[in-house]
Design brief:
This protein is of the alpha/beta class. The chain has a single domain, classed as Rossmann fold (3-Layer(aba) Sandwich), CATH 3.40.50.11900. The protein is built from 15 helices and ten strands. The strands form three sheets. It has a four-stranded parallel β-sheet, sandwiched between helices. A four-stranded parallel β-sheet has the order 7-5-8-9, with helices on both faces. α3 (35-45) crosses α4 (53-65), α6 (106-120) crosses α12 (240-246) and α7 (124-149) runs antiparallel to α8. The radius of gyration is 20 Å and the shape is globular.
Length: 332
């Protein structure tokens, strides 16, 4: 099956129905042993230093991977994507645009999906069959999420991994489902974690490594990965258009916050880590999040793939200590 890359989560059901291998370019970039070098290669090619590291990584990943067709999300994701699309098309890559409507209009979204379906030669019946197949896997990933926050048996990084993989199902839904099944069997038999600070992680997945295990070394655990959970399409609706209307990431910050507030209450969150990517417009959304969410918030910024630096570690230590003190005072 030919591989089709994409720059952000798209209706992957269409690619599966068409017999294509879906490839989330973000995932293969950040898991590459050469992720830092890929960014350097993009800068050597002419990308400015003050451009988002994910965009530079995707550019170099496409060239290195040999992918010759990709879907670019031109509305509802990174504002640099249109320029990336132009640069890659000059290099002979077939680039298909896909846009999430800002107003979440169902007719507009359906029309965008049907353009993709026409390009890949599939109809609604085939796509709905693919959706049923993928939804069965998504429900199992939702159980991993439940084991994370309700039964306290799954680590924050494990939760992050399985949810983020649902953007492309690791390019092989059948094999990914086997991995999910094996993990569920093992996790269900675990003892519960001891008492910990319960954290929410908001924003795009981190470009920094070691965040989750470092937090757990401090006695805190991420039990809500906001954007990663959205990749898993957690609302379990039978209608594909409605599924991607309810998916919060491509739309306005207030639509996201409605979902975040519900999960914060349901999961009994103590504090929030809001990750922002350097040179990204979403950094401005931190102002809204701080005004709308009434919990302690620590904002972290990342630029390129790297381990946690000393300053970030100190900030995390101070934040978790503050939350622990606050929790102890509430119990007295």
């Amino acid at each position: 099956m030919s591989r089709v890359g994409f720059t952000s989560t798209i209706p992957v059901e269409i690619l599966v129905a068409a017999g294509k291998t879906p490839v989330d370019l973000n995932n293969i970039f950040i898991t590459s042993e050469r992720s830092a070098q890929l960014i350097e290669e993009a800068e050597v090619a002419g990308f400015p230093r003050n451009v988002c590291g994910w965009i530079k990584g995707i550019y170099a990943t496409v060239l290195e991977s040999g992918i010759d067709e990709m879907i670019a999300v031109t509305e509802g994701d990174c504002s640099y994507t249109k320029a990336l699309m132009e640069i890659l098309s000059m290099g002979g890559i077939t680039v298909v645009p896909f846009a999430y409507p800002m107003d979440r209009n169902p007719q507009t979204l359906k029309a965008e999906m049907e353009k993709l379906m026409a390009h890949f030669g599939v109809d609604w019946k085939e796509v709905d069959r693919a959706k049923a197949r993928l939804d069965a896997i998504r429900r199992k990933v939702a159980e991993i999420d439940r084991l994370t926050w309700q039964e306290n048996k799954v680590a924050g990084e494990e939760n992050h991994y399985f949810q983020v993989c649902t953007s492309d199902f690791n390019s092989d839904p059948a094999t990914f489902e086997q991995e999910v099944d094996a993990f569920l069997a093992e996790a269900a038999a675990r003892p519960v974690f001891g008492r910990q600070i319960r954290l929410a992680y908001l924003g795009v997945p981190p470009i920094l490594s070691e965040l989750y295990p470092f937090l757990e070394s401090l006695g805190a655990r991420v039990i809500f990965n906001e954007t990663q959970r959205q990749f898993s399409m957690p609302y379990d609706t039978a209608d594909l258009v409605e599924q991607y209307r309810r998916y919060t990431y491509p739309y306005d910050i207030f639509h996201r916050i409605t979902d975040i507030e519900l999960e914060i209450a349901r999961r009994r969150i103590d504090g929030i880590i809001h990750y922002v990517q350097s040179f990204c417009f979403r950094q401005i959304e931190d102002m809204v999040i701080r005004r709308k969410l009434h919990l302690p918030i620590l904002t972290l910024e990342g630029d390129k793939p790297a381990r946690l630096d000393a300053r970030t570690r100190i900030r995390l230590e101070g934040f978790v200590e503050m939350l622990a003190d606050k929790q102890a005072m509430a119990e007295d």
